[in-house]
């Protein structure tokens, strides 16, 4: 059992001499958390079964991500057809993002109590009605209404996949799969407007929404038959599975012999709810909602991760809020299909960002753990952020300042790509850092991060047009780029003080973990 003085997130990840002989290893890498002896423990699943499970999570992200962002490159046409201003459309989109965050206060406790599968299925199926409502709505009030409803229903896309990744993969693998989730999340947001431009030219903007509904229905069908439940309640934590001696890097562990239920049949796996022993009580589920707000005060590492992720989402909102007006206006005069084509740049950039913030950041963390007597600190992966800061800052300047001086459109395309690289890196690393620091309360921690992220995204999305009107395009984006550089640059503060802040939160963290064990 972990001692209250154990620092959350500090784990033995590299054991070249196998001092911890009882520990599960993969080569010289220590498996964290230690898998149980249960063959149905998702950590013990075969590689093929794990990949199918995570692929279904990614398909959910693609399905919901496309239906919530498919309208970006046809905003002008929607405004003309429904007598709306672009500012009203952007406000509706901002409200959707706000509820994409706050809706998790409802969905996440359900997912951590009754299982992931049911929440995924309910969320994606319920996305269809508000999407179909969109072509038939009139005026700003109805636009705001279906955007808010869609945001609330689609909210699990923002935080539930981040639980599915540690359900299935060990600590040294998480970064790569978390980064690929970020690629799917942001990539779907770029694929949708790209496709929408061509659908608009061929069939009109109404069919853009019909396409989104058909796509979601297709994804829902696949998920129903192939998505497997990954929730599992284990009796060990990453820190107490291995008691780490920071001077020697040696570890000790104990194993308990217990019996496990038989594997579920395929028909049993189709059930949307899984009532496992050890699940949170209803009282605990409600406590977790309130705990989310306390985490923002008592866990400064989580608050910082939320600010990092929120700032990066803000630049994404800024780009989306100005893409149609800049490329569709003078001197570029892009047709809707060409505006959609411009989204290929961030799609390519997000692929490179996924590789950098995932595979490369994992390698950095593993190498630094080896140098640190095998002990990994969550801050090790933050060393992948300097490139993210430079790319995002440079991209925002190229986009805003370049557009104000009629820079060749290819310069703007590269600017979008550079900004996207920083956005995806910042988001993926913030999520992985959150789980690495306080894995046993990841459900609540991730909600806290998403609340900060989406509230900031809403604020910047709401403010960008008045900001540009007040300062002008050039000065606005110079300000934005400097804010971006400053916020991401604060990772240096976490490198220096991150572990002390985790130690500050340790007592409360272990008390939360103890509550889970005694009340579950």
What do you see in this structure?
The chain contains 22 helices and 6 strands. Helix content is 71%, strand content 2%. It has helices at 47-69, 75-82, 86-102, 104-114, 116-126, 128-133, 139-153, 156-159, 161-168, 171-203, 205-226, 238-241, 266-269, 282-298, 300-328, 336-341, 344-371, 385-404, 409-437, 442-471, 473-489, 491-519, and strands at residues 11-12, 25-26, 29-30, 243-244, 251-252, 375-376. It starts with 10 loop residues before the first strand and ends with a helix. The chain has 520 residues and is mostly helical. Helix 10 packs antiparallel against helix 19 (409-437). It has a two-stranded antiparallel ribbon with strand order 1-6. It has a single domain (11-16, 46-246, 267-519), classed as MFS general substrate transporter like domains (Growth Hormone, Chain: A). The protein is globular. InterPro entries: MFS, MFS_dom, MFS_trans_sf. It comes from Fusarium kuroshium. Residues 51-501 form the Major facilitator superfamily (MFS) profile domain. It is a multi-pass membrane protein. One of its GO terms (cellular component) is plasma membrane.
Number of helical stretches of at least 4 residues: 22
Please state the average pLDDT score.
87
Number of domains: 1
What is the name of the CATH superfamily?
MFS general substrate transporter like domains
Supply Rg. 23 Å
Strand content: under 5%
CATH architecture name: Up-down Bundle
- The succession of helices and strands, N to C, reads EEEHHHHHHHHHHHHEEHHHHHEHHHHH
The percent of residues in helical segments reads over 70%
- Taking pLDDT < 50 over at least 5 consecutive residues as the criterion, the unreliable ranges are 20-25, 241-255
Q: How does the overall form come out from the CA principal axes?
A: globular
Number of strands: 6
Q: What is the CA-CA span between the terminal residues?
A: 17 Å
User: What can be said about the biggest beta sheet?
Assistant: 2 strands, antiparallel
Main location: membrane
Subcellular location: Membrane
Membrane topology: Multi-pass membrane protein
Protein name: Major facilitator superfamily (MFS) profile domain-containing protein
